[in-house]
Amino acid sequence: MLRSCAARLRTLGAGRGGARPPAGNPGPAQRWFSSEKLSANDRSLPNPSWNKDLRLLFEQFMKKCEDGSWTHMPSYSYKNTLNGKLPNKHLSQAQLFTRSYEEGLGFEYVMFYNDAENRTICFFQGGPYLQGAPGFLHGGAISTMIDATLGTSAMIAVGIVMTANLNITFKRPIPLGSAVVINSQVDKIEGRKVFVSCNVRSADEKTVYTEATSLFIKLEPGKSLT
C-alpha cells in the first residue's frame, strides 16, 4: 500500500531530514496539502455515506486548519503509471487500495497532520465490505489504515519510506460503520530508521480499540521501489 502512497508523497521533498523552507514560505508538504487542492475528485471530502461522527470530526479539524496548526491531506483514487512505463499490463489499472471501493462500501477516511508536533491523525469509517466477525470491522482492515497512517507520518518526517516492522495489539473489536480516530506520532528518528506509534480510539476517544508501533526505513535517493 505504501508503494502507492509513495508516488503522491514524492512531492514532500526531503522532509525533516533536509533543509527547511524560510519563514513565511511554505515548504512542499504545506503546499501539497493546502486547502487550494480541495476538489470534487478528493476522496477525503465528505460524501453521503459519512456518519455524523466522521463529519463532525472533519469539520472540527478543518477549523483547526484555518490557523495553520493542522493541514488537511487530500486523497485520490489515482492510477499509478510509473511515469508512463508499464512493465506489467495490470499496472495500467492500478489504484490506491484504500480508494478502490465505491463510496461508503469500504474505506472512508480523512487525514490531517501537525508538522510542529510530528503528528498525523486519521478519521476512519469502515464500510460493509470490510466486515470480519458479524457486525465488526475486519482486523486486516484496521491494520491497513494503521499502516497507512503510520506510513504517512514517517513519509512526512523524512521522505519516501517502506514498512520494516508493524506490531499491533487488538484490545476491542470495532463496530462496523463506526468512526474511529487513529492518532499517530513520530517517536524517534535514527539515521534511516523512523519509529512511529499510534492508538485507535472511538470518536469520543473514550474507548481504546487498538495500539500499534512500527519501524519504517527511509529509502535511499534513487533506490527502486520494486
Can you walk me through this structure?
The chain has 226 residues and is of the alpha+beta class. It has a single domain (2-9, 42-218), classed as Roll (Thiol Ester Dehydrase, Chain A). It is 21% helix and 27% strand. The chain has helices spanning 2-9, 28-32, 52-65, 139-158; strands at 71-73, 107-114, 119-126, 161-170, 179-190, 193-202, 208-218. It has a 7-stranded antiparallel sheet with strand order 1-2-3-5-6-7-4, with helices on both faces. A hairpin with a 2-residue loop joins strand 5 and strand 6. Helix 1 (2-9) packs parallel to helix 4 (139-158). Mean pLDDT is 82; it is low at 1-38.
How would you summarize what this structure contains?
This protein is of the alpha+beta class and 226 residues long. The protein has helices at residues 2-9, 28-32, 52-65, 139-158; strands at residues 71-73, 107-114, 119-126, 161-170, 179-190, 193-202, 208-218.
List the SSEs and their pairings:
Elements: H1 2-9, H2 28-32, H3 52-65, E1 71-73, E2 107-114, E3 119-126, H4 139-158, E4 161-170, E5 179-190, E6 193-202, E7 208-218
Helix pairs in contact: 1-4
